[in-house]
Design a protein that fits this description.
Blueprint: H1 2-39, H2 59-68, E1 74-82, E2 85-92, H3 98-115, H4 118-121, E3 133-139, E4 154-159, E5 167-169, H5 177-193
Parallel strand pairs: 2-3
Antiparallel strand pairs: 1-2, 3-4, 4-5
Helix pairs in contact: 2-3
Length: 194
């Protein structure tokens, strides 16, 4: 009888442990289900720039910058600050040369530096702090039905917060003239063949 009693007692312990082992994941699943159900349809909000972008670029600074960017030879200036990137778009005279556009681009970069110092606003000072990027786009015209792309000059000066020096690129000039000519010839031949 005592063996039967011990067996019954150990069975109860075994059933209790098995019940607990089964209940723990079941309770977790129920908790996750109801938590997800409560948050259904609600957007997840956050700030990816938390503890970064300090000091912040203010509207006052942007206004000062717009005034400072009134450079001879510019027709239209547009400034926007989206996703921690300050973009300055400058439309120059349609007949502006590459030298003129380079000069305006460098003057614009210097103007940005005078209002918003590059080392303060556009350079990561600590590993955990992210700062702004700056991109200055200068062009003479945008090609359309009346103007061909052959005379267009478009230059971009970019300084990311992680980079130590700015980068200048000229998308309207081929980096490899031979490859560009070959591609243009193939495109012209393909258009003739249609």
């Amino acid at each position: 009888m005592s063996k039967l009693k011990n067996l019954s007692k150990s069975s109860k312990i075994l059933y209790t442990v098995a019940g607990i082992v089964i209940l723990i994941p079941l309770v977790l699943l129920i908790y996750i289900y109801f938590g997800a159900k409560d948050n259904a349809g609600k957007p997840t909000v956050g700030d990816r720039f938390e503890d970064s972008l300090n000091p912040a670029i203010t509207e006052k600074k942007l206004s000062e910058l717009k005034t400072a960017l009134k450079i001879d030879g510019t027709e239209k200036i547009e400034i926007n600050l989206i996703s921690a990137t300050l973009r300055v778009n400058i439309d120059t005279a349609d007949d502006a040369s590459a030298d003129t556009i380079t000069s305006i681009m460098n003057q614009a970069y210097d103007s940005v530096n005078s209002i918003l110092p590059i080392d303060t606003y556009f350079t990561n000072n600590k590993k955990s702090t992210k700062m702004y990027d700056v991109e200055i786009n200068v062009y003479n015209y945008i090609p359309d039905e009346t103007k061909s792309a052959d005379g267009q000059i478009f230059m971009i000066k970019t300084k990311t917060a992680a980079a130590s020096e700015p980068n200048v690129s000229v998308p309207t000039t081929a980096k490899n003239e031979e490859v560009a000519k070959k591609l243009l010839e193939e495109q012209a031949n393909a258009e003739k063949g249609q």
